[in-house]
Amino acid sequence: MFRILQRLQIIRTNRKMVKLTECPRDAMQGIKQFIPTDKKIQYINKLLKVGYYALDFGSFVSPDIIPQMADTAKVLNGLELNADSAKLISIIANERGANDAVQFDEITYLGFPFSVSETFQQRNANSSVEESLSRVEKIKSIADSRNKEIILYVSMGFGNPYGDPYSPEIVAEWVEKLSQLGIKIFMLSDTIGVAEPENISYLFSTLIPANKHLEFGAHFHTAPHNWKMKLDAAYDNGCMRFDAALKGYGGCPMAKDDLIGNMPTENLLNYFKPEDFGPKFSLPAFEEALREAIHVFPAH
User: Fold this and answer.
1) Is 3 inside a domain boundary?
2) Residue 60 belongs to a domain with what CATH number?
3) Which residue has the higher pLDDT, 44 or 65?
4) Which of 45, 111, 157, 212 lies 20 to 30 Å from 202 when distance is taken between CA atoms?
């Protein structure tokens, strides 16, 4: 019996942690009615008690484009952070946003959405794909100057509705180009919820073994009927980093008129186990945040 218990302890000790990022920014950004700043602060502070790996909490982008995020700096100043808090991610779309974000020591990651769809990159960032490559290089320099890391979101990473050329090989080519700039974290993003298990499996099973110096994750937008098959395809092929939002709120407002929701965080908790997210993960705190979400997103 002792040997069996010892073996189980070794398995638990060696088990690799799933890096779970909660995305209140993605959940909120498409809502037209402004959510009061104090309500955002209260909600994100509850999320901070859960024990997530990271929080995609806000963005430094033009308030004319995403007015919901105009108070990101105020929200940040109201957060109750400590040494054990989740790492904070701020989304930026250009050098101006990067310069704003790096002023805050509390932010660990700058997230940049880089689309392999020419149409969507123009729509989302007002630049061509090639221009965005140059933009990433400048943002990387800004981030390095303040010891920030870049998370590169490969948007439209599983296909697009615009007729732009797409294949998994195109995604792999862009990952190679961007990694040469020193980018080390890539989130493959199912921006409009069209990812099929075959593409997911192929990309992760190809990219992860071939790029052991890089980290790959999944940012899925899903429907109730296909969330599990997407998780299966990613996790079975080595993906250990996932983005999600409580109750599946949100989606990308630049993608199309009807938002395709984020991967619900509670689905990930059903798929994995709370202990898979690390020793700091608190199920009671998660349940408290889930109850709070209902008040933050009452009509969604």
Assistant:
1) no
2) 3.20.20.70
3) 44
4) 111
Tell me the two tokens of residue 198: 């075959």
Taking only the tens place, the pLDDT of each residue in 45-97 is 999 999 999 999 999 999 998 999 999 999 999 999 999 999 999 999 999 99
Who's near 214: CB < 8 A, 6+ residues apart? 175, 179, 184, 185, 186, 207
pLDDT of residue 181: 97
pLDDT at 124: 72
